[in-house]
């Protein structure tokens, strides 16, 4: 992938850009094998590759500059604004949205926030696109002071960009590098962006997490579904479930499935999907995953975990070791913490591992690992 921003030294987010893509995959696989070197792995599956550009479904733009000439991108440590609207990671469909948002900011009188002066209103723009063509736009504001102006100007923007199905304002009053605050204000009747992976309907709400590489994510979910189908389990937990992507892919009408996620926004999405699919034996709850699990006296046949980068941790590993479900399916965006967790589960063997390159041109990747209780089969 060629990137003029990288060549000019303006953005180095893609640290591996100069490395040929096949070498990137090879290096990631080597790192994964090194992390699991002390753990026997019965089956290594080939890594799943990604498109090299245009694969991101989400842009997180710092807004700087002036109300008449806003800059979307990032601000360097020296305070210089870098325009990233031409980043080749974004799909071509983003360009027309960014182009119209610049005059819109002037129409709405949304002065970009100045970090040094602690003045201004508009901090970030967050744009998400579904594979179905709809988009979600979020304005992250310092306060609600300009909300009336924003609402008044929106009809013009919606007329120009009808694909903006979900629009909201997030209030983030803290003078820190925090992307969003707790308060979300709906600016459109619809507040869930419709997505669909592998004939499974999914919904993205403003404050719910969703994978940023939809093509690879769809492959990850499909693989999990295939692995679980081979196990023929009748009960399952989906911990750290987000909007329910894994559980909804793996569930069958006869399966008892419980999904747990701390975000109420994400759980609302998961429930909507389950209802649409007619899965009567599936339930979702907005709870802490570790607290939920460790307070139970029984376990299902399979526990799927998809934790944040910190992993599932010693407490949950100890509880899983004690309760001994037949299978653990571990999806990780941080193979280092995953390897640490697997080391805490000595009563399980690693049946298969597969790398999914969710983040090309960086050292990051996703991994799916099936662990089987020793003495069992997979």
From TrEMBL:
<keyword id="KW-0698">rRNA processing</keyword>
<dbReference type="InterPro" id="IPR030391">
    <property type="entry name" value="MeTrfase_TrmA_CS"/>
</dbReference>
<dbReference type="Pfam" id="PF05958">
    <property type="entry name" value="tRNA_U5-meth_tr"/>
</dbReference>
<feature type="binding site">
    <location>
        <position position="14"/>
    </location>
    <ligand>
        <name>[4Fe-4S] cluster</name>
    </ligand>
</feature>
<keyword id="KW-0949">S-adenosyl-L-methionine</keyword>
<dbReference type="GO" id="GO:0005506">
    <property type="term" value="F:iron ion binding"/>
</dbReference>
<keyword id="KW-0004">4Fe-4S</keyword>
<feature type="binding site">
    <location>
        <position position="11"/>
    </location>
    <ligand>
        <name>[4Fe-4S] cluster</name>
    </ligand>
</feature>
<feature type="binding site">
    <location>
        <position position="211"/>
    </location>
    <ligand>
        <name>S-adenosyl-L-methionine</name>
    </ligand>
</feature>
<dbReference type="InterPro" id="IPR029063">
    <property type="entry name" value="SAM-dependent_MTases_sf"/>
</dbReference>
<feature type="active site" description="Nucleophile">
    <location>
        <position position="333"/>
    </location>
</feature>
<keyword id="KW-0408">Iron</keyword>
<keyword id="KW-0479">Metal-binding</keyword>
<dbReference type="InterPro" id="IPR010280">
    <property type="entry name" value="U5_MeTrfase_fam"/>
</dbReference>
<dbReference type="InterPro" id="IPR030390">
    <property type="entry name" value="MeTrfase_TrmA_AS"/>
</dbReference>
<dbReference type="GO" id="GO:0070475">
    <property type="term" value="P:rRNA base methylation"/>
</dbReference>
<keyword id="KW-0489">Methyltransferase</keyword>
<feature type="binding site">
    <location>
        <position position="261"/>
    </location>
    <ligand>
        <name>S-adenosyl-L-methionine</name>
    </ligand>
</feature>
<dbReference type="GO" id="GO:0051539">
    <property type="term" value="F:4 iron, 4 sulfur cluster binding"/>
</dbReference>
<feature type="binding site">
    <location>
        <position position="87"/>
    </location>
    <ligand>
        <name>[4Fe-4S] cluster</name>
    </ligand>
</feature>
<feature type="active site">
    <location>
        <position position="333"/>
    </location>
</feature>
<feature type="binding site">
    <location>
        <position position="306"/>
    </location>
    <ligand>
        <name>S-adenosyl-L-methionine</name>
    </ligand>
</feature>
<feature type="binding site">
    <location>
        <position position="3"/>
    </location>
    <ligand>
        <name>[4Fe-4S] cluster</name>
    </ligand>
</feature>
<feature type="binding site">
    <location>
        <position position="240"/>
    </location>
    <ligand>
        <name>S-adenosyl-L-methionine</name>
    </ligand>
</feature>
<keyword id="KW-0808">Transferase</keyword>
<comment type="similarity">
    <text>Belongs to the class I-like SAM-binding methyltransferase superfamily. RNA M5U methyltransferase family. RlmC subfamily.</text>
</comment>
<protein>
    <recommendedName>
        <fullName>23S rRNA (uracil(747)-C(5))-methyltransferase RlmC</fullName>
        <ecNumber>2.1.1.189</ecNumber>
    </recommendedName>
</protein>
<dbReference type="GO" id="GO:0070041">
    <property type="term" value="F:rRNA (uridine-C5-)-methyltransferase activity"/>
</dbReference>
<comment type="function">
    <text>Catalyzes the formation of 5-methyl-uridine at position 747 (m5U747) in 23S rRNA.</text>
</comment>
<keyword id="KW-0411">Iron-sulfur</keyword>
<dbReference type="InterPro" id="IPR011825">
    <property type="entry name" value="23SrRNA_MeTrfase_RlmC"/>
</dbReference>
């Amino acid at each position: 992938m060629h990137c003029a921003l990288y060549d000019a030294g303006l953005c180095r987010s893609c640290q591996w850009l100069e490395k040929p893509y096949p070498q990137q995959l090879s290096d990631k696989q080597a790192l994964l094998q090194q992390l699991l070197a002390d753990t026997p792995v019965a089956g290594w599956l080939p890594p799943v590759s990604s498109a090299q550009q245009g694969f991101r479904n989400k842009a997180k733009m710092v807004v700087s500059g002036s109300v008449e000439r806003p800059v979307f991108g990032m601000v360097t440590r020296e305070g210089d604004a870098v325009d990233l609207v031409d980043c080749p990671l974004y799909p071509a469909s983003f360009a027309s949205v960014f182009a119209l948002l610049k005059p819109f900011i002037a129409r709405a009188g949304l002065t970009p926030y100045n970090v040094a002066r602690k003045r201004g209103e508009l901090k970030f723009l967050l744009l998400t696109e579904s594979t179905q063509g709809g988009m979600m736009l979020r304005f992250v504001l310092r306060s609600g002071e300009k909300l009336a102006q924003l609402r008044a100007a929106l009809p013009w923007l919606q007329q120009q960009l009808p694909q903006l199905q979900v629009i909201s304002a997030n209030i983030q009053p803290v003078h820190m590098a925090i992307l969003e605050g707790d308060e979300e204000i709906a600016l459109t009747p619809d507040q869930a962006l419709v997505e669909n992976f592998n004939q499974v309907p999914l919904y993205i709400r403003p404050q719910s997490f969703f994978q940023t590489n939809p093509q690879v994510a769809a492959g990850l979910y499909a693989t999990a579904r295939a692995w679980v189908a081979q196990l023929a389990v009748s009960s399952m937990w989906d911990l750290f479930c987000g909007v329910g992507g894994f559980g909804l892919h793996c569930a069958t009408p006869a399966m008892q499935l419980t999904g747990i996620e701390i975000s109420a926004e994400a759980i609302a999405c998961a429930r909507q999907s389950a209802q649409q699919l007619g899965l009567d034996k599936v339930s979702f709850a907005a709870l802490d995953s570790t607290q939920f699990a460790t307070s139970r006296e029984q376990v299902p046949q399979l526990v799927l975990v998809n934790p944040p980068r910190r992993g599932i941790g010693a407490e949950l590993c100890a509880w899983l070791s004690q309760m001994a479900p037949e299978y653990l399916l571990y999806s990780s965006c941080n193979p280092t913490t995953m390897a640490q967790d697997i080391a805490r589960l000595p009563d399980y063997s690693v049946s298969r591992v597969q790398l999914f390159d969710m983040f090309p041109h960086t050292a990051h990747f996703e991994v799916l690992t099936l662990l089987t209780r020793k003495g069992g089969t997979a």
